[in-house]
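Forum: Protein Structure Q&A
Topic: Joint prediction for protein chains with partners

I've read a bunch of threads here and the consensus seems to be that you should model interacting components together rather than docking separate models afterwards. I'd like to see that in practice. Below is the full input, 709 residues plus whatever partners are listed. Could one of the regulars post the assembled result?
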Amino acid sequence: MDLTFSPEEEAFRSECRAWLDAKVPQPALPSGDTREGFAAHLEWERTLFDAHYAVVSWPERYGGRDASLWEWLIFEEEYYRAGAPQRVTQNGIFLLAPTIFEFGTPEQQDRILAKMAAGEQTWCQGWSEPNAGSDLAGIQSKAVRDDAAGGWRITGQKTWTTRGAFCTHLFGLFRTDPDAERHRGLTYLLVDLSTPGITVRPVERLDGDEGFAEVFFDDAFVPDENVLGEANHGWEVAMATTGSERGLTLRSPGRFMATANRLIELAREHAGTTDTALRARLVQAWTDADAYRWQTFWTVTRMAEGKRSGAESSLVKLWWSELDVRLHELALELLGPHAELIDGDDAAWMKGYEFALSGPIYAGTNEIQRNVVAERVLGLPRK
Amino acid sequence: MRFAFTDEQLEFRDAVRDLLAKECTPTHLRDAWTNDTGRIPGLWRQLAEMGVVGMLAPEANGGLGMDEIDLVLLLEETGRVALPEPIVDTAAAAVPELIGDARLDAVVRGEITACVFDPQIVGLATWADTASVFIFAGNGETLRGTPTELRRGTSVDGSRRVFDVVADIPAGARTDNPIPDRGALGTAAQLCGLADRMIEMTVDYVKERKQFGVPIGSFQAVKHHLANARLALEFARPLVYRAAYSVARHDPDRSAHVSMAKANASDAAHLASRVALQCHGAIGYTTEYDLHLYMKRAWALARAWGDAGWHRQRIERALLGGTTNA
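Posted by a regular:
Agreed with the consensus. Here's the joint model:
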């Protein structure tokens, strides 16, 4: 056991810190879940990309720097410590990209990854449908074979598509074999949202931003080169992505540690008004953020030694999503009556709270995650 | 960075697990509940022979010269079986304090045991009537001679023999007294083992027990209880291992790290005990069934060496500093 970072890793940390301290936009950018803010965030993504910080763990030829998992974690810690902008490219770089690395053809990798890293192509996730939320295998949007054109024609609707109104592309599951049961007969398609036959309607989220969208498909054409993995085997491909979403790749501990540290700063500012019970809960929340950090280091050690994590990613998702809500609830408690203000110095906490509340819902609700933990980690019977 | 144990450490853990699976069964525990000592005859010497008792002692004293990182996994195993022996007091807390003391070799050989006492830090002293070495946790000083009086209490956990130790507290003040940290660390490790055991017993039970024609483990309400218990353990254990590392490496923040470990381990074991009983239902509410042997140990250890609240106050001083009494 060695819980220190190497001199090279510490040097990398210093380099990241210096660069971020110099470059992080001040004042903070407007929300990336608005049209105006999204554009500002894409400029920031370009700045990251040009300095090879957009996707540090990727190969150099796609804009990365071949960083190890440890270096990636260090970068994330520094990124959130510096208060750097949200990553509007995250559904591409953290969810789709690992799937493309695993299932994509070399041609797809070369065509898509560098543009994704640079923010030239932005990706949203087309999973949920009006009748397929937690029950993802209930997907009804269909893709019909068009042999003459060499591809598929898609019809149906996706919904709750985060940043769908601003992104250029969508990845999602479509039913290609109407006779197959449930999770069979689905295909993973990569869809250019400028294709004729596609309509995108923004939907205002809880926080007032147009961060959601409904996406309607009416006989829109997707060429064969945009099938990821094999036709009718999209479920296996998609499960690789939801593993990423629940687990390590989307939610590095840096974000929660940074929030926990800001919460402690806020508690110091409000020292005169905290009682013993509240302070105990603050300590507990901060401890739980640190526990997340060490559980991640434990997991990353296993991954670095070639072991894959499986259903444990559901434990991780439960922990960070419920921790994030608690951290923000404690901040609102410290702010007291001023917590409701969505302008002024402390407005970020209410905004953050609204965002945190989505955590226990998206990427598989926490009720589903608890089922997964019970069935696949503990081995309880499905029925 | 490598946050994992070595193959050798895991093999040692497995050997201790195998021994305890054979020699510290529920039958042994039930005997300890009713015998004179509250201990398992012969087992302490076997643990000493394996090197568990003297793990932190220098090789010159017959010990293994190893550290808390090596020991923490073994203590987790002693928790898993609710070992009724003074292993935390002796192996984790006392042994490193006895270097230079003539009695260390006998402790390492398993001939005598130690009792660490201090109501402010330890809570109740355990297995004091069979102990030969008494250490006051408050200042880490060893008692010369024997206590004036041992006032026996009766623990809810019948194999835990508990006492108030009445003694002339030895003088001495050290700026750095590691006993409270090592005792709390060892207890936190035991609590993780206990939580794991109770979850495992409950998973086995709800897979077998049928109601409404199906295993009760297929019901979401039962699944979610057990998922919550597993979740709390998942995020307590790494804190315990990290605290072991910090203590072994004399990290300046080790006391806060130990407190984080003990607070979360106490909570995880408490939750596991509640979930285990609820999911077992009435059978778990009997003493004929084995669950209570582990549940009652968890109740006691969650509060020994500082409960979650006490440790959170200690973290608070490190984290919030001057706001504590604002």
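The mean pLDDT of chain B is 96.
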